[in-house]
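Researcher: Excuse me, tokens okay?
***
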Amino acid sequence: MGLLDDKVTIITGAGRGIGAAAARLFAREGALLVLAARTGAEVEALAAELRAGGTPAVAVAADLTTADGAERTVAAALSAFGRLDAAFDNAGSGPVPAPLAERSEDDWDEVHALNLRGSWLCLRAQLRVMAAGGRGGSVVLNSGVGALVGGFGDGVQQAAKHGLAGLVKAATADYAGHGIRVNAVAPGVVRTPATEGFFAAGPEFEETVARSTPLGRPARDTEIAEAAAWLLSDRASYVAGVTLPVDGGITATWRLS
């Protein structure tokens, strides 16, 4: 049996990077998938790839910073599969790091719209359906190591990640009695298409990551997906309200240099 056998699972931000890696992993683990992102062509191509491999999968092009986008994604799960068991709310973005006082109000609004407001909107829609269905469920938010330490990257994004940690705790307090577990993963630096520009600019960035990460390297997108799959699965049945570092040891030692 797979970790996610027969679990109807939403993945947001599924078009590329961690989301796409999660979609392929969750498919191998037996999930029935709803893939959502702004990039409709990307998620449709990925859903077609997974269907060709035998995984039931549907794609939704949605702006997940809006209540309509979040609710349409949940509605797609109900329409295709009749229920919702799990969700990996992975959609997010990150600016180029800069000192906090150099950020504008537009920067704040843009970063928080997807990283915090969008995650809350998706979580709200998912919790409503899971609670009404009476079957329980599991949700994992993709946060970041910036939710757990100070001084990591951009302060505007870090504030949003701290907000996600608060959402995890509040949702656990409100919905654990319904059998719904809410947790988060907190990656350190992950090598994805979104971060490839930093690595491609020269060796300095990769050397900094190696020095500041006890394991000596950035994460692979599949490593974050593996942690999310475990948290969503019944093997993590007594884990709730946790923001789990998946950071190569950064939060254990914190030695940015």
Summary: The chain has one domain: 8-253. Residues 8-253 form a domain with the Rossmann fold fold (CATH 3.40.50.720).
